[in-house]
Design brief:
The chain is of the alpha+beta class. It is built from 5 helices and 6 strands; from the N terminus they run H-H-E-E-E-E-E-H-H-H-E. Helices cover about 25% and strands about 30% of the residues. The longest helix has 14 residues.
């Protein structure tokens, strides 16, 4: 097992890229083309009350959604005081309750499960796989401090007449 230190790339996409992705994920025809594995998450600012909508990669597991973000990003910090979120997943709007996974063993387990389904995202984080296709746990453990793992429990769909972020 290779446990060399891995540094997660810190560069964020330019604002215009996020704006284009937000627009595309809200457009039915385009959403189907790029929406697989991409969602919009809306959080409420803890100080201002302003709603922020951000594109994120996600992994769905029944009534739970896993979102992995870099610790250096700021939007997720709003969830420390208000864990209610809205998600746009595959063209449908949902309400959910987010939990930041603080326990490293739980976070590592959820990270491995998600990234073993999507090797491209793992490689973007600088991670590798064992010959039998499992995430290299040693390398993954080294990047955990650089990531935030959110588990969002879906609580219900938002109808077409309800508010959207």
């Amino acid at each position: 097992m290779n446990t060399d230190a891995v540094t997660v790339p810190s560069a964020a996409p330019p604002r215009w890229v996020n704006n284009m992705v937000r627009m595309a994920l809200r457009t039915p025809g385009l959403q189907r083309l790029i929406g697989r594995g991409l969602a919009l998450i809306t959080v409420t600012g803890r100080k201002t009350g302003t709603r922020y909508t951000t594109p994120v990669s996600y992994y769905r597991d029944h009534d739970a959604v896993l979102v992995i973000t870099k610790r250096g990003r700021t939007w997720w910090r709003n969830l420390e005081t208000n864990a209610d979120v809205e998600l746009r997943l595959a063209g449908e709007k949902w309400r959910g309750r987010a939990q930041i996974l603080a326990d490293n063993s739980a976070a590592l387990s959820r990270l491995a499960t998600a990234l073993e389904r999507r090797h491209t995202d793992a490689r973007a984080l600088g991670l590798t796989f064992t010959p039998d296709g499992h995430l290299d746990q040693g390398r993954a453990r080294t990047i955990l401090p650089q990531l935030v793992i959110l588990e969002i429990r879906l609580t219900g769909r938002i109808g077409p007449n309800d508010d959207e972020g």
